[in-house]
């Protein structure tokens, strides 16, 4: 996803102005549906193995989300779209393909980030945040 695509998606979601606040966000990520392909992508990007249980969950998921937090959601989503600044480990291995949601009212804390991931996970959806998979 390019920065222009991300900007347009935030606008289509109706959160373009709100995205300039602190809070949490979720990005849809393309993950292979085969465990060996998940592991290969991870090893190529991170040079360390992904726990087998995580690889199994990622490959089996219908939807995979990366959940993050920022003092300015818009700026951080643009960082992810450019891919050249402060790139998250998970997004080095797997491609960000869409903005799934923005929650500007959430606190800019690790607790809020994990709480958002827990709330989004389930029914074929897995969420990665700060090295944890929900």
Describe it.
This protein has 6 helices and 5 strands; from the N terminus they run H-E-H-H-E-H-H-E-H-E-E. It has 134 residues and is of the alpha+beta class. It has one domain. Strand 4 and strand 5 form a beta hairpin. Helix 1 packs antiparallel against helix 4 and helix 2 crosses helix 3.
Features:
134 residues, alpha+beta, five-stranded mixed sheet, 6 helices, 5 strands, 24% strand, globular
SSE order and pairing:
Layout: H1 3-12, E1 23-30, H2 35-46, H3 52-60, E2 63-70, H4 73-82, H5 89-93, E3 95-103, H6 110-120, E4 125-129, E5 132-133
Parallel strand pairs: 2-4
Antiparallel strand pairs: 1-2, 1-3, 4-5
Helix pairs in contact: 1-4, 2-3
Q: What is the percentage of strand-forming residues? A: 15-25%
Biggest sheet overview: 5 strands, mixed
**Overall pLDDT, averaged?**
94
Count of beta strands: 5
Radius of gyration: 14 Å
Coarse structural class: alpha+beta
Question: What is the helix fraction of residues, given as a range?
Answer: 40-55%
Distance between the termini: 24 Å
Strands of the widest sheet, in order across it, are 3-1-2-4-5
Overall domain count: 1
The ordered string of helix (H) and strand (E) elements is HEHHEHHEHEE
Taking pLDDT < 50 over at least 5 consecutive residues as the criterion, the unreliable ranges are none
Shape type: globular
Q: How large is the count of helical segments?
A: 6
């Amino acid at each position: 996803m390019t920065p222009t695509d991300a900007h347009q998606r935030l606008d289509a979601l109706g959160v373009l102005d709100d995205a300039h606040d602190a809070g949490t966000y979720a990005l849809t990520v393309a993950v292979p549906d085969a465990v060996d392909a998940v592991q290969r992508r991870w090893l190529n990007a991170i040079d360390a193995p992904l726990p087998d249980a995580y690889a199994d969950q990622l490959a089996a998921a219908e939807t995979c989300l990366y959940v993050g937090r920022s003092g300015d959601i818009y700026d951080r989503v643009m960082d992810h779209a450019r891919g050249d600044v402060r790139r998250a480990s998970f997004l080095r291995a797997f491609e960000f393909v869409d903005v799934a949601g923005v929650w500007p009212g959430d606190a800019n804390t690790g607790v809020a980030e994990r709480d958002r991931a827990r709330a989004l996970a389930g029914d074929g959806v897995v969420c990665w945040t700060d090295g944890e998979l929900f």
